[in-house]
Amino acid sequence: MASTAPWSETRPTALIVLADGTVIEGRGLGAGGQAVGELCFNTALTGYEEILTDPSYAGQIVTFTFPHIGNVGANDEDIEDLHPAARAGAVGAVFRADISNPSNYRSASHFDEWLKRRGIVAIAGVDTRALTALLREKGAANAVIAHNPDGVFDVDALKAKAREWSGLVDLDLAKEVTSGQSQTWTETPWVWDEGYGNQDEPTTHIVAVDYGAKRNILRLLAGLGAKVTIVPAKTSADDILALRPDGIFLSNGPGDPAATAEYAVPMIQQLLKTEIPLFGICLGHQMLALALGAKTVKMHQGHHGANHPVKDFTTGKVEIVSMNHGFAVDGDTLPQGVEETHVSLFDGSNCGLTITGRPVFSVQHHPEASPGPQDSHYLFRRFANLIRSRRGEPALAE
Ligand SMILES: NC(=O)CC[C@H](N)C(=O)O
């Protein structure tokens, strides 16, 4: 099977070096050079391009547990970050098999070329089952991924680099990946044979605070009739309210929520003094929880995949969801008046909250999928219904 990977039987052309000194050898793919970050694993079977361009993955190296990554090629349509030139998203990728030639009508380039252009350092030929078992046992690890086609590495220097990296705890990465200025978003979700649409006749206005927002979230909001104004992470509550939103959205994003909370929490607390419906996803969920007085914790290995079962206590239904988080809200710290609405059926961790009797809620998982099942799309309709109810309009079927 063809591969663009430089192949050396005798010499590895890429390494993963963990902070504990573990060295894993393989074949280099994608960009040359080195990247440092937290090494995690993702169990999704599809959607590698969406995963690697999710800005929530900034500062992380993703091990794909699915062995064949790259076979549907790459295109410019399936990226999830708002500003591709800024390359917010995963810094490295780990694969079992080499990348085969693309076979898909939507493919515009070989995935290896795409990785190179995107500046993602990648490695193939890794026993990803063993690596995943190691990460499950020891927890997500600080690591360096290095790719040199000549096969020359200073392993001691790589070990030191992995050891000396700060790690994600206390790191505010939202400020690195947020939009520099406000912009309007009107693109609606992808439809078979038609591609993406456009919201030409918006009936509501949603302000989305961008901590590293994924495009498909914005598309789903626009698809439900909203004009979306994306604002930078540090926009003040006054400036947000001056836009006269019908609803406010707090986006997903990378890094430690407790670090971003420094400026996000006072802003969210001010927004909560109004009755404007508010919806948060992932980092947005975590910061809403912090604004309400709850605590977030670093998880052992995190949740990254497209096959996680979550229970919605408000309906009793179980949904299969996309997840990508390394921190979680400690459900035991939710104050009185705040209800836990969703929980992970894998480990019981908190996956959602609402303020009793108020139009405010958030979830830890990624209801926009992209990639993943669409079971949780109802949460966008739940948000739209909070806006509709405030305006005296009939509810959509959830
Ligand atoms: N997808 C996200 O928004 C991730 C939130 C946060 N950075 C975490 O890892 O838990």
UniProtKB/TrEMBL annotation:
Stated family: Belongs to the CarA family.
Lineage, highest ranks first: Bacteria, Pseudomonadati, Pseudomonadota, Alphaproteobacteria, Hyphomicrobiales
Pathway given in the UniProt record: Amino-acid biosynthesis; L-arginine biosynthesis; carbamoyl phosphate from bicarbonate: step 1/1; Pyrimidine metabolism; UMP biosynthesis via de novo pathway; (S)-dihydroorotate from bicarbonate: step 1/3
Natural source organism: Nitratireductor indicus C115
Catalytic activities: L-glutamine + H2O = L-glutamate + NH4(+); hydrogencarbonate + L-glutamine + 2 ATP + H2O = carbamoyl phosphate + L-glutamate + 2 ADP + phosphate + 2 H(+)
Listed InterPro entries: Anth_synth/Amidotransfase, CarbamoylP_synth_ssu, CarbamoylP_synth_ssu_N, CarbP_synth_ssu_N_sf, Class_I_gatase-like, CPSase_GATase1, GATASE
EC number: 6.3.5.5
Keywords: Amino-acid biosynthesis, Arginine biosynthesis, ATP-binding, Glutamine amidotransferase, Ligase, Nucleotide-binding, Pyrimidine biosynthesis
Limits of the Carbamoyl-phosphate synthase small subunit N-terminal domain: 12-146
Active site: 282, 366, 368
UniProt subunit comment: Composed of two chains; the small (or glutamine) chain promotes the hydrolysis of glutamine to ammonia, which is used by the large (or ammonia) chain to synthesize carbamoyl phosphate. Tetramer of heterodimers (alpha,beta)4.
PANTHER family: CARBAMOYL-PHOSPHATE SYNTHASE SMALL CHAIN, MULTIFUNCTIONAL TRYPTOPHAN BIOSYNTHESIS PROTEIN-RELATED
Alphabetized SUPFAM superfamilies for the sequence: Carbamoyl phosphate synthetase, small subunit N-terminal domain (SSF52021), Class I glutamine amidotransferase-like (SSF52317)
Binding-site list for L-glutamine: 56, 253, 255, 283, 286, 324, 326-327
Name this protein carries in UniProt: Carbamoyl phosphate synthase small chain
GO MF assignments: ATP binding; carbamoyl-phosphate synthase (glutamine-hydrolyzing) activity; glutaminase activity
Any GO BP: L-arginine biosynthetic process
CPSase: region residues: 1-196
Family matches, as Gene3D superfamilies: 3.40.50.880, Carbamoyl-phosphate synthase small subunit, N-terminal domain (3.50.30.20)
Top-level division of the source organism's lineage: Bacteria
